[in-house]
Write a structure and sequence with these properties.
CATH class of the domain at 644-695 and 698-747 and 810-918: Alpha Beta
Shape: flat
Strand content: 5-15%
Distance between the termini: 77 Å
Largest sheet: 7 strands, antiparallel
Number of helices: 41
Radius of gyration: 41 Å
Helix content: 40-55%
Length: 1200
């Protein structure tokens, strides 16, 4: 705002010659000369009490005048300019330096005054409405919030000291010449004598004359009446034609449009008609029917007119009289002028998919395609053998395979050895003959054919004993893969748990299926891994099916076929389709090994086992306390310590924790000024190290010291002698919770030693990350390692305070860590709030982090202040407690505790911000994808434009798509975890539980697994029907055309509440936006196929009565209005294009499925994770109308 420079922009140096001064004197009357000379002589003898001082010099032939132009008050305004012209003996030229009496205000003084008056020198853009009609007045906490509109037309005029430039010139002229009655030209001539022409400020372009402004207004009015220039007539014809083309894509043709365009075209000269080259020849996209219409009309409407169509001629519109004809100047209709005159045409997008932000990756993948196994350096080879297995069992109709009834027809396996350079074996053991699979024989697959199921099991057991794998893995091993083999083995009289184990003396288990079903899959001597459960901790997804995991991890689309279809292929009498089933399972069993290789699953787990000193499977199955205890016990043995093992009763009698972490309630609102985020680096571990908090260094509470008897200490009793206490009196550290610890000079605790090693190792890993920033895959590996070390360090505090499930809890140690961390954060907050030079305040604090508001600061200044705060707070605390400056948010919304969102800047030179959210719906998975997409884009529009009218327009557009009923079902699908039937209270109304009960009634094997995410949607129903009755599976919605999504529920109960949690902080309610929208529901044409189906809802009895061609309501029962019946050519074109569009869309979707499946036949994929499935269902419903349209062709068109 201000700059410290010798000459500021407020000072103008004016240099002129002596002759100019004399000429100016000669132009004045003699009386004025004498008066001016006397006044000047009086000024020479005056003191510094006057405004100007004069210094004479006889060496320079020039006159230098310094004038400070400041919009000051009236007194200083009257003392602006004073000139002196005199001569001395022996010199013909006089040099006068004119100076201000008062020096200009310095920048430091201005900044100091701004700070004292609490005025910021930087004002960030606040939210506004660009459309004043969108302004709302909302009451929040008994206060009305009112956002003003900010278009240019409604801005207040700038208030200046003078009403105009001419008045300022007259006032200055009065002070200089004493004459204020002269006209502007005379004043200008007078000023030219004082100030040379070279020093006058001139505009870059000349202002328009009154004649030009008058002609401009005339052209503007004519443009409104005639809709543009001469080319506007041709553009209107093009627009009408393109509108008809766009309407015909939807099956709607406006007869009036055709007639008006024809009349316009006939009224034009041949040269003015649209050129064929203007026509858009681009082909349509892959999905180009109603859901993905062509954009040719938009591009044509927005394309600028050709220069050849603009002539200096008289424009005559058919609707205008000759008196309104105006001779247009072609210069007025250049591209930039046309943009000013024309009403801006908003780009119309008729896509029925939710408009979301552009994803960071091409396919919106949740994980990068980086092979972690390739960048990991194996110091030692693990020499672990992994065996992946998938099975194919015959199913009955639509039921899933049941091991009690359905036999296993084939076992598919993949033998993998780590290191991966060893030989791999992919094979099949199946019931059948070699002649049945000629296509598969050409592939490098080991195939073993058997005659019956028992022989298949015996061959498989023999191979497993021969290979002796360490790890048995399957994608879903509870109902399929290994679990199905175990259950089926019991039916056949085989105990596979004993046959496949490495320990032969295993007690034979009961062959009851119920016992096997409730028993965890364990094989003595081998590790059994259920892959999909482990992948839940690797990537956050809505669904953890094999197809979705392959897409996001390996970036490949995998088809999913129903059990009925796989059985039909396998049992086909010609054996020509069996290879499709084999290929389906080979993709799955190979994909399992590819997934664990891509994620370096074996290597990472082995390294963690070495670090923690526990077994491979314990890394996957045990919790964090087990890991902490393993490391701690190894260090305690070296120091001759023995860990305490209290009983459950002793833990129950332990004192309850008293200290809580410091969590400030944030000031909930939108912050346009920078928000500095600072975080203590591993606060709790650093506190333990800095203050030597440990089981072995704690002397108990201060209130108990000095007593000869024993006193409670955690779960046990402790006795500290008075003699020992006196020796340690000067070596004690008292925590804020009143617990005494000895200093490091007396004894270094076990926990500080352990944590110091972990944090040093983590710093080493982070240093390696800085050195290899260009290697993305290595970055992921190192980041996972440092995150694991950080986790084990942070949960050490939890081990000391776990009074319910912990093995060795000690409330004194736990309270001391929490209270000291709270004190550290509170002191840091006070330091920030009490330091005046920063002019910042803390608006939110949470355990080990704080959000600092820097009002009136730029992003660059915020980074400097953040680093300074981090250094000051770090120096005020003992090592290794360190406050780390993380990032800057600008802008940012703080909702509540642990819920905030903003644009993040990690470095000062970062130009493009990163969207980051914590705790809100954009990063949560308990809603449908539409909520995340709409909320994220709405916030991004708000952060980038600050224009709430733009946000409102976007949100209303998405609401209209949902109301129409042709929205993508995938965007409206919920997915909640299923906790098992025993995990819910009796009578619980939970969608996942309700669907599971329905599925179990028809198929006992269809119950979802515990922790599996069950997809469901909410459909429309009768008024008053309970919501639980409206819960349906996505498969039901896709198969039953009578069902439709409940748009009222989705908008009012699912989408609007998250939006209002953000926008109500600005005083902008979202619910009125929806209430004011029109309710437009898409109605399909009558269908012969639908008439044959059983009608279950009242909506099935309704059909559209609009004309198929022009979409106008018709009273006849012919399906086409009388106007269209009279124009058979138009009717035929419309119906033909409608049929063509449906069939073309079907063909293009089939091409996509063919590319994914790899064959042109049998593309019956049922994967809910593929968006093409929903598009395919939509096209099928459109094609149901084909029979009705063909019947209209037969009835009304003789040509057909």
């Amino acid at each position: 705002m201000f700059e410290d420079k010798p000459t500021s922009c407020n000072t103008v140096d004016v240099v002129g010659s002596g002759s100019t001064s004399s000429a100016f004197s000669n132009s004045l009357p003699e009386a004025n000369k004498m008066e001016g000379r006397a006044e000047n002589e009086h000024m020479i003898s005056s003191s510094e009490s006057y405004l100007f001082t004069q210094n004479k010099s006889y060496d320079s032939p020039t006159i230098v005048a310094k004038q400070t132009l400041l919009p000051l008050s009236g007194e200083l305004e009257k003392q602006i300019i004073s000139a002196k012209s005199s001569s001395t003996e022996g010199s013909s030229v006089v040099t006068s330096y004119i100076k201000l009496k008062c020096k200009p205000i310095s920048r430091a003084l201005v900044v100091e005054e701004l700070i004292n008056t609490d005025v910021t020198n930087i004002l960030s853009q606040e939210p506004f409405y660009s459309n004043f009609k969108d302004i709302t007045r909302t009451e929040i906490t008994n206060k009305f919030v009112h956002l003003e509109a900010a278009p240019v037309a409604l801005l207040e005029e700038h208030r200046c000291l003078f009403s105009g430039l001419s008045e300022w010139r007259q006032r200055v002229c009065l002070e200089v010449t004493g004459d204020a009655t002269r006209n502007v030209n005379d004043i200008m001539e007078s000023f030219q004598h004082i100030f040379p022409k070279s020093n006058f400020i001139k505009p870059i372009a000349k202002p328009p004359t009154s004649k030009s402004v008058t002609r401009w207004l005339e052209r503007k009015e004519a443009f409104k009446r005639n809709a543009g220039t001469r080319s506007s007539v041709s553009s209107r014809v093009e627009q009408k034609i393109l509108e008809n083309e766009q309407c015909s894509q939807k099956g709607i043709v406006d007869v009036k449009c055709f007639e008006e365009s024809s009349a316009l075209e006939r009224s034009m000269k041949p040269d003015d008609r649209p050129s064929p080259t203007r026509k858009n020849k681009s082909t349509r996209s892959s999905f180009d029917s109603d859901m993905f219409p062509s954009s040719s009309s938009r591009e044509s409407n927005q394309s600028p007119p050709n220069k050849d169509s603009i002539h200096e001629a008289e424009i005559t519109h058919p609707d205008c009289s000759k008196s309104s004809q105006i001779d247009f100047n072609p210069d007025l209709f250049k591209s930039f002028i046309r943009k000013q005159l024309e009403t801006p045409k908003r780009r119309i997008c008729d896509s029925y998919a939710i408009d979301a932000m552009t994803p960071d990756t091409t396919g919106d993948y949740q994980m990068g395609l980086d092979n972690l196994n390739e960048v990991t350096s194996h110091v030692e080879n693990y020499y672990l053998t992994v065996l992946a297995v998938e099975i194919h069992a015959i199913s009955r109709a639509l039921l899933k395979p049941d091991p009690a009834y359905d036999e296993v027809k084939a076992i598919f396996y993949y033998l993998y050895t780590c290191p991966p350079e060893e030989d791999r074996k992919v094979g099949i053991i199946l019931i059948g003959q070699e002649s049945e699979l000629p296509e598969v024989r050409t592939k490098p697959i080991q195939m073993h054919f058997v005659s019956n199921e028992k022989e298949l099991f015996s061959i498989f057991i023999e191979n497993v004993r021969q290979w002796d794998p360490d790890i048995l893995i399957g994608y879903e091993i509870e109902t399929l893969s290994w679990g199905y083999l175990l259950e089926r083995g019991y039916v056949l009289g085989l105990n596979l748990n004993q046959e496949l184990s490495r320990i032969t003396e295993v007690e034979k288990r009961n062959s009851s299926r119920d016992e096997v079903k409730n028993t965890q899959l364990q094989m003595p001597g081998r590790i059994v891994i259920n892959l999909w459960r482990l992948l839940r901790h690797e990537v956050n997804l809505q669904s953890y099916t094999f197809e979705n995991i392959m897409y996001h991890v390996l970036h490949e689309r995998i088809p999913l076929h129903s059990w009925k279809l796989l059985t039909c292929w396998w049992e086909h009498r010609t054996h020509l389709y069996k290879w499709m089933t084999v290929e389906h399972y080979l993709i799955r069993v190979t994909g399992i090994i590819r997934l664990i290789e891509q994620l370096d699953f074996i290597g990472r787990t082995s390294e963690m086992a070495r670090l923690f000193g526990i077994q491979f499977y314990e890394v996957l199955s045990r919790g964090s306390q087990f890991r902490v205890e393993s490391i701690m016990l190894r260090l305690s043995r070296l120091n001759n310590f023995v860990a305490v093992s209290p009983s459950i009763k002793q833990r129950a009698h332990m004192r309850a924790p008293e200290s809580l972490p410091l969590i400030l309630e944030p000031e909930s609102r939108l912050y346009t000024d920078p928000i500095i985020v600072l975080d203590f680096q591993s606060l709790y571990p650093s506190v333990i190290i800095a203050y030597n908090y440990c089981f072995s260094t704690c002397l108990g509470r201060v209130e108990h010291l000095g007593v000869s008897d024993s006193f409670p200490f955690g779960c046990i009793d402790l006795n500290v002698s008075i003699r020992s206490l006196k020796k340690l009196q000067q070596k004690l550290t008292i925590s804020p919770s009143g617990v005494a610890f000895v200093d490091k000079s007396i004894r270094c605790g076990i926990l500080p030693k352990m944590l110091q090693e972990i944090l040093d190792t983590r710093l080493m890993v982070k240093q390696s990350m800085k050195e290899y920033k260009s290697n993305a895959a290595l970055q992921r590996v190192l980041h996972a390692r440092q995150l694991g070390l950080k986790l084990i360090a942070n949960v050490t505090y939890g081990y000391t305070a776990a009074n319910f499930s912990g093995r060795m809890p000690c409330v004194e140690v736990g309270d001391s860590v929490v209270s000291k961390g709270r004190e550290t954060l509170q002191k840091a907050i006070e330091t920030v709030n009490n330091t005046s030079k920063w002019q910042c305040r803390v608006v939110y604090g949470d355990t080990d982090s704080m959000f600092v508001l820097a009002p009136g600061k730029t992003k660059q200044e915020a980074f400097e202040i953040g680093k300074e705060i981090a250094n000051v707070v770090t120096n005020n605390n003992p090592t290794p407690v360190k406050l780390k400056f993380e990032k800057v948010y600008q802008p940012c919304i703080l909702q509540t505790k642990k819920r905030y969102v903003g644009y993040m800047y990690e470095t000062a030179d970062q130009d493009k911000p990163i969207y980051e959210a914590k705790g809100i719906e954009t990063v949560r998975r308990d809603g449908c994808p539409a909520v995340s997409k709409i909320l994220k884009k709405s916030l991004c529009l708000l952060f980038e434009t600050k224009d709430l009218s733009v946000v409102k327009e976007y949100v209303e557009k998405q609401f209209s798509k949902i109301i129409s009923g042709r929205i993508s079902v995938q965007d409206m699908t919920f997915a909640k975890e299923y906790r098992g039937q025993a995990g819910y209270k009796p009578g619980a109304c939970v969608p996942a539980l309700s669907l599971a009960r329905q599925w179990v009634l028809t198929d006992p094997r269809a119950e979802p697994r515990v922790s599996e995410r069950v997809p469901y949607v909410i459909v429309s129903g009768a008024p008053g029907l309970p919501l639980i009755k409206l819960v349906k599976s996505p498969y039901e919605l896709l198969q039953d055309s009578s069902l439709r999504l409940n748009s009222e529920y989705y908008i009012t109960r699912v989408i609007i509440p998250p939006l209002e949690r953000c926008f109500l902080l600005l005083g902008t309610p979202v619910l009125p936006w929806y209430k004011n929208l029109p309710r437009k529901l898409h109605v399909y044409l009558p269908s012969v196929l639908n008439e044959r189906k059983k009608k279950s809802t009242i909506s099935q009895y309704f059909a559209s009565v609009n004309c198929v061609c022009c979409n106008q309501m018709t009273q006849n029962n012919k399906g086409v209005c009388d106007a269209c019946l009279n124009q058979t050519q138009l009717l035929g074109t419309c119906l033909y294009y409608k049929i063509q569009a449906w069939q073309r869309s079907q063909d293009q979707v089939n091409k996509v499925c063919t590319t994914c499946v790899g064959r042109s036949t049998s593309n019956d994929c049922i994967s809910l994770d593929c968006p093409v499935l929903y598009r395919k269902t939509q096209i099928t419903r459109d094609l149901d109308q084909l029979s009705y349209v063909l019947s209209l062709c037969d009835s009304h068109l003789a040509l057909f």
